[in-house]
Amino acid sequence: MRKHAKAFSAARLGIYGFLIISALFFLLPLYVMIVTSLKGMPEVRQGNLLSLPMAPTIAAWVKAWSSACTGLSCNGISVGFFNSVKILLPSVTASIAVGAVTGYALSLWRPRGAALLFGILMAVAFVPYQVFLFPLVRMFSFVGLNSSLPGIIVVHTIFGLPTMTLIFRNYFAGIPLELMKAARVDGAGFWRIFGTIMLPMAVPIIVVAIILQVTGIWNDFIFGLVFAGRENFPMTVQLNNVVNSTQGEREYNVDMAATILTALVPLAVYFISGRWFVRGIAAGAVKG
Amino acid sequence: MSGVTVSAIAKAYGSLKVLQDIDLEVQPGEFTVLLGPSGCGKSTLLSAIAGLDEIDSGTVTIAGEDVTDREPSQRGIAMVFQSYALYPTMTVRGNLSFGLKVKRLPKAEIERRVGKTADMLQLTPLLDRKPGQLSGGQRQRVAIGRALVQDAKLFLFDEPLSNLDAKLRTEMRVEIKKLHKDLGMTIVYVTHDQIEAMTLATRIAVMKGGQIEQYAAPDELYERPATLFVAGFVGAPAMNFFPGTVHGGHVVIDGLSLPLDPLPLAGAVADGTKVILGVRPEHVGLADDGAQGTIVDASTDFLEPMGADTLGWFLLGRHRISCRLAPQRARSVSGLVRLALDLRHASLFDANSERRL
Q1: Which of B72, B86, B89 sits opposite A185 (nearest CB)?
Q2: I need a surface site. Which of A53, A65, A144, B111 has the fewest CB within 10 A?
């Protein structure tokens, strides 16, 4: 029964008070968004942000998904969703694959100049993206990759490389070198060791990499805008277009619904994998 | 079965010479132990034989073939590691068969070999477990099994028992010895544990500072250590050392004069030579109990009971000398005693070169 006695101490009260206020602070915008998205325009016009919808309707959601106007076309944000998926799947796969192999090579094979290469990779990771935009556009135009799906995938793979290499390198650095030696004595080569021994051991860090890349690439705006081309604009760019194409009255309920729809994927990833995420980050951070 | 010849192997990390012109010959079926303190280069030498570490110069020949430039997997070797290095995501069966699969052996052959090895090492009930579900001793057996299944020309062991507790280590030592006796394979085995070396080896190479101090059978090594280092490193409790000077057929140690003629010397030692006399504790006895040898007076310092026998420590002038005693006898030892030193088994080293005289 000591638990109950403790629950009402002043310190406890303070902690809970703080937590409740923090939760409200972060949940309030979400609340406003959900409530507004479920209202019809007459209710929105009244301007009562916090009030519950009197006649809840999902009309705004349907419109946001299938018929909201982005610039000239009025096919809703669903186009952006599928574009984002098309960008996301190959980009996440490619960036993780390349990062995992690079990290594995740098930490377990230690070729000449590995430390230098890794240092350069890390240094470049801190250069602001904007610096690369114009040169990259020129280069991509030159090889015919600009404004295309492969172009944006290559961009995401390149910019994901430093982080992916870092987390995989640190993870593999914690693996005993004797394991590598045993595999070499057994006759396995670079790819065989990677595929049959190291990759199965790296599942926790792969999950972390997936979370980082899915959220990162899904939330990307500027690369999508610059490199994907009008046909392939990702959901974030489409959302911006929906919100900004004001012809007549601003439909806040549709904007809200479109925003929530866009945020759903990263949100889902966090909810599903939060446990793995913390574990993997800790595993990757302690060593190396 | 086939031997190994290592000739003039050298390796340096910058200015640190890890291996200095090492020559080593291992006969087919021989169990050679590389023994030495940490940092003596024994593991580096093993890695050089395995081909896991590049060497600066020299050659490695296994079964008559020069393998110096070959990959580890092309050398016909199998290896057991200190940390076992089992593949954690594979079952025991997967661990045993991995190397065979890489070599693309037929499925039936793999199964036959894995079954045979598992049988021999009592691993059959564990075949479908993962390494994480095994005890230390079981993991060690899997590691040995992974080497045996290879049908290699040469087996390399890198401190395979040092992660086990004392009791298990003794058990596994016996198992390894029995395997060698039954299968007669050629083994090079690295350890820093001299008891492991003495019990297992047919020949021991004692290493220090990247060089081999002595390469000889365990008895030879123990009875006639070639250098002061070997004498001090091999044997527990350790050999007693007394620095002195040779004078008129005697070695003079702080006024105490002992005759040289019982010693098994290689030749005459010139007067004035600074020497170190080495006497093992089992060659010191109590003269009053009828022990034979050169008699000296000493006083009892303290006694260390070790179970099977008691180590008696006595003061011989400024020097402390240890002596193996029967425990019952040791209980009544005190005060002044007369010790008999059996100098026929003693060793004499040059104090400068530290080599046996």
Answers
A1: B72
A2: A144
